[in-house]
Amino acid sequence: MAGYDIRVIGDPVLRQTAKEITDIDGALVRLVDDMLDTMYEAPGIGLAAPQVGVQKRLFVWDVGTGPEAIVNPEIVESDGEWLFEEGCLSVPGLSWEIVRPKTVHIVGRDLDGNEMSFEADEIEARLFQHELDHLDGTLLIERLDDETRKAALKTIRELQLGGADTRRATGGGLTLP
Length: 177
Known about the structure:
With 177 residues, the chain is of the alpha+beta class. It is 26% helix and 32% strand. It contains 3 helices and 10 strands; from the N terminus they run βαβββββββααββ. Strands 2-3-4-7-8 form a 5-stranded antiparallel beta sheet, sandwiched between helices. A 3-stranded antiparallel beta sheet has the order 6-5-10. Strands 1-9 form a two-stranded antiparallel ribbon.
């Protein structure tokens, strides 16, 4: 069973900037375990703490190589351009082609407080950028051009009026279409 419900568009917590983590302790490890359970149940490949209502700079992921977590992540370098269809269960059932840098270098801390550093490209690079957006209070619809964003918001309103629950959903993080 998932540890959390996923917050979805319309929930103000998704628009807030997450706070830096100053203490890595057992409670944080339990949070990571619960977030991973939630992400796998979704299923998703990444999940940021704000998506479960926790305003901490932390996200978890698994792109098929096993579960990972990073505390206070930061992209220190990016390069290239890659257009790819991107979805997010904080915006349930919808996805769009979004251009992001193709490669990134991300740094942060692991759950033991040790420095982490990753060079990532394509899907993993996109995942890191997507989850960092969540930590900064940015949803993927803000990455759309004006016309596409307007159409996306109209679709979301129609879904809300049609009875879809857009406050919470079970599901998590970055998803592949």
